[in-house]
Amino acid sequence: MFDISMTGQKHLALDRRKFLGIAAGLIAAGVLPKNVLALAGPYTFKQGDYDVSVVSDGTLQLPVSLIGPDAKPEDVKALLGAMVQGTNVQFEASPLLLRSGSEVILMDTGSGGGFQPTAGKIAGSLKEAGVEASAITKVIFTHAHPDHCWGTLGADGKPIFANASFHMAEIEWNFWTAPDLASKMPKDMEGMVKATQGQLAGFKDKVAMFKPGAEILPGINVLDTAGHTPGHVSFELAGGDGLIITADAIINPMVYFPHPDWKFGFDADHATAMANRKKLLDMASTGKKKLLGYHWPYPGIGIAEAKDGAYVYVPTA
Ligand SMILES: [Zn+2]
Q1: How far apart are the CA of 7 and the centre of ligand 1, in A?
Q2: Distance between CA 248 and CA 233 in Å, rounded?
């Protein structure tokens, strides 16, 4: 079901699952063409002053052994269900598009063509959302891992989002741009570090840095969720009781809502990551705030209900 907003943009109203179910039936019956779901565009909703679209960069395959490495593998697999494929787990990768007035903001740029063959698909999603890369006014990063920032430069080494300014937490920028970083990391991470440094160098003249606690744009507040990386941040978007854009502070809701103290293999500092994960879940459940996750099953929006000292994930879209 659709409603037409005051700005004339199409919004998928609350009951996306019902819409998808009805559409699937009509496609099977030959009433609707198969590409109708793509025509519906990315999941879009209103949050405060912003129209938020969950765009897709595709999917990522990670070794399932990274999820709760100290937990029993069968317990992890039971929680992840069909996301587990052999020894891998398949996760979504979903940057966000935020539109308000003249601002067209992209939150993270995806993986680009150099990470995994199933990712780097953001251009198609932006097109479905009706946005040209040149129309993006600001790119805001949650952190500088490959699946969040390698989609920034084109083949010519220049930013794909040619008219945008770029925004990253100061700690994150300083960590990744340190000239001696590659030599301090494990040998097998050297290529990743250098590729990330190449991306950041491509927009170093157009970068502005921010700190946790700042309101970087009206209604967009920075939350310190260090741990996954040294300068990882989440954002709280004003409107209603608030929406927390977790990014990778909570990699997967099925596993880490019930077990917020389980480790995630790609967290740089497990204790800090765990403390900040718990902080977000507590904030969300006591404040009735919605949560949105970059790698959660699409579109990845839900609430955290406190239960027995942990949380239950209740998707709301
Ligand atoms: Zn990620």
Answers
A1: 32
A2: 9
Residue 10 has pLDDT above 90, yes or no: no
Distance from Cα 110 to the centre of ligand 1, integer Å: 9
**142 C-alpha to center of ligand 1: Å?**
9
Q: What is the pLDDT of residue 41?
A: 83
Ligand 1 mean position, distance from CA 60 (Å): 9
Phi-psi region of 267 (alpha: psi -120 to 50; beta: other; left: phi over 0): beta
Ligand 1: centre distance to CA 227 (Å)? 13
Could you identify the residue written with the tokens 């709280």? 236
- Residue holding tokens 């069968």? 74
The two tokens of residue 203 are: 């927009």
Three-state DSSP state, 30? coil
Q: Kindly give the distance from the C-alpha atom of residue 95 to the centroid of ligand 1, in angstroms, as a whole number.
A: 10
Look at residues 143, 164, 137 and name the one whose alpha carbon lies nearest to residue 153: 164
Q: Global pTM?
A: 0.89
* Ligand 1: centre distance to CA 108 (Å): 10
- How far, in Å, from the CA of 33 to the mean position of ligand 1? 33
| φ, ψ (nearest 5 deg) of residue 252 | -150, 130
pLDDT tens for 161-192 read 999 999 999 999 999 999 999 999 999 999 99
Contact 168, 174 (CB under 8 A): no
Instruction: Give 294 Cα–ligand 1 centroid separation in angstroms.
Output: 7
64-88, pLDDT tens digit by residue?
999 999 999 999 999 999 999 999 9
Residue 142, C-beta contacts closer than 8 angstroms, at least 6 positions apart: 107, 108, 148, 232, 233, 234, 235, 245, 247, 248, 294
Which of 60, 56, 59, 58 is closest to 126 using CA atoms?
56
CA of 184 to the centre of ligand 1 (A): 22
For the chain, how big is the Rg over CA atoms in Å?
A: 19
Instruction: List, as ranges, residues with CB under 5 A of the ion ligand 1.
Output: 147, 248
